[in-house]
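Input record, target 12 of the design panel.
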C-alpha cells in the first residue's frame, strides 16, 4: 500500500493510504537547474528587445515578425510556467490548506516590493507623456491613471500583478482541480480572442463584447486570463515524479513539433486583424511546458555556475521599462540597438549595486 504523509493527490486531497495518481515519494528539495537559470536571462533580454523594438534592426518585415512572435514573445509564457512549476512544487507538498495559503502568501509578499517600486516609478514617468499625448485633457489623464493602477500597471508590471492574482486563484481552486482546469481554459480562450485571435470573432456578436472589455480594461493580459492558466500548467508539471516519468526524448520531440506549429501559426496570423500586442498563441501552451520539461531533465549547463544569471534576469526585467522610457521618450534616443544596449548597461550597473545594497536587492 502507498502511504504519503506530506503530499496531496491530484484532486488536492490528503494521501491516506490509497494509491495516488502515481506512486510517489515525498519530493526532495529541488536542486538548482543551471539551464533554466540561463534561459531566464535569455528571455529577460528578449523582453527588453520587445520593449525597445530591437527587431527593427532587421530590414525585412517578415523577419521582424517571426523574430518577435516566435522568439521574443516566448519569454512571458516561459516565466509564467517556470514560476508555476516552482510554486506548484511547494503546493503539492503542503499538508493542509493553511500551509498552502502560507506558501502562496510568501510568494506574493516577495513580489510586492519590486512591484510597488517600479509600478510607481513607471507611472511617474508616464503621466507627463499621457498629458502631452492626450492634448492636456486632465480628465482623460486621470482616467488613464485610474485604469493603470487598477487594471494594467505600466512598465511590464502587469506580469507581476498577473502572477499575484494567478497564484491566489491557483491556491483558491487547488482542491478542485477539474473546476480549475475548466475555468483556466475558458479564461485563456477569452484572452486569445481579445488578443491574437480577434479575427476569428471579428464579424460575430462576440466582437462587441471584446471591444467593450478592451475599452474599459485596456487588454486581456490579466491574472485571471493569462497568469492563472499558465501558472496552473507549470504547477501541474511539478506533480511529484511527473518529470521523471516523462521521457526527455518525448519532450524534445514535442518541443520541436510545437515550435514548427508556432511558426505555422504565426504564418497564418500574419496580416490578420488582431488586438492588443499579439502575444498570446496556442502553440505556446504546448511548446513552453515541453521545453521546460526537457531542460528540467537535461540540465546541459549543470557544470557552469548560473545563479548570477537568475539574479541578473530579475534585475533586468523589473527596471528596464523605466530606463527605456527615460531614454526614448525624454532623451529621444530612438535607435533601437543603441536604446537596447544602454538600457541593458544601466541594468547591469544596478545589478552590481544590488550586490552591495540590501535595499536595491529587495526591489530587483
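The sequence produced for target 12 reads:
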Amino acid at each position: 500500500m502507498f502511504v504519503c504523509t506530506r503530499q496531496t493527490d491530484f484532486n488536492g486531497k490528503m494521501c491516506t493510504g490509497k494509491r495516488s495518481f502515481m506512486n510517489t515519494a515525498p519530493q526532495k528539495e529541488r536542486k538548482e537547474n543551471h539551464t533554466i537559470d540561463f534561459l531566464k536571462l535569455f528571455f529577460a533580454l528578449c523582453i527588453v528587445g520587445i520593449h525597445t523594438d530591437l527587431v527593427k534592426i532587421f530590414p525585412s518585415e517578415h523577419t521582424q515578425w517571426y523574430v518577435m512572435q516566435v522568439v521574443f514573445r516566448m519569454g512571458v509564457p516561459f516565466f509564467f510556467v517556470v514560476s508555476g512549476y516552482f510554486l506548484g512544487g511547494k503546493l503539492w507538498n503542503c499538508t493542509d490548506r493553511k500551509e498552502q495559503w502560507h506558501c502562496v502568501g510568501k510568494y506574493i509578499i516577495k513580489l510586492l516590493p519590486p512591484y510597488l517600486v517600479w509600478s510607481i516609478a513607471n507611472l511617474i514617468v508616464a503621466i507627463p507623456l499621457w498629458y502631452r499625448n492626450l492634448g492636456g485633457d486632465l480628465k482623460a489623464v486621470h482616467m488613464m491613471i485610474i485604469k493603470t493602477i487598477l487594471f494594467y500597471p505600466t512598465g511590464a508590471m502587469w506580469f507581476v500583478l498577473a502572477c499575484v492574482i494567478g497564484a491566489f486563484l491557483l491556491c483558491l481552486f487547488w482542491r478542485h482541480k477539474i473546476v480549475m482546469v475548466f475555468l483556466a481554459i475558458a479564461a485563456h480562450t477569452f484572452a486569445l480572442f481579445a488578443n491574437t485571435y480577434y479575427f476569428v470573432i471579428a464579424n460575430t456578436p462576440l466582437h462587441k463584447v471584446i471591444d467593450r472589455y478592451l475599452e474599459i480594461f485596456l487588454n486581456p493580459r490579466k491574472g485571471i486570463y493569462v497568469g492563472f492558466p499558465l501558472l496552473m500548467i507549470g504547477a501541474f508539471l511539478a506533480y511529484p515524479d511527473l518529470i521523471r516519468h516523462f521521457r526527455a526524448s518525448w519532450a524534445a520531440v514535442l518541443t520541436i513539433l510545437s515550435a514548427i506549429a508556432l511558426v505555422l501559426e504565426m504564418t497564418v496570423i500574419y496580416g490578420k486583424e488582431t488586438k492588443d500586442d499579439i502575444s498570446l498563441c496556442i502553440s505556446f501552451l504546448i511548446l513552453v511546458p515541453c521545453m521546460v520539461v526537457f531542460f528540467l531533465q537535461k540540465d546541459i549547463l549543470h557544470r557552469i555556475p548560473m545563479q548570477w544569471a537568475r539574479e541578473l534576469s530579475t534585475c533586468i526585467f523589473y527596471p528596464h521599462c523605466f530606463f527605456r522610457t527615460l531614454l526614448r521618450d525624454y532623451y529621444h534616443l530612438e535607435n533601437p540597438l543603441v536604446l537596447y544596449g544602454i538600457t541593458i548597461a544601466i541594468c547591469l550597473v544596478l545589478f552590481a549595486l544590488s550586490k552591495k545594497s540590501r535595499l536595491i536587492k529587495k526591489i530587483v
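The chain is about 70% helix and 0% strand.
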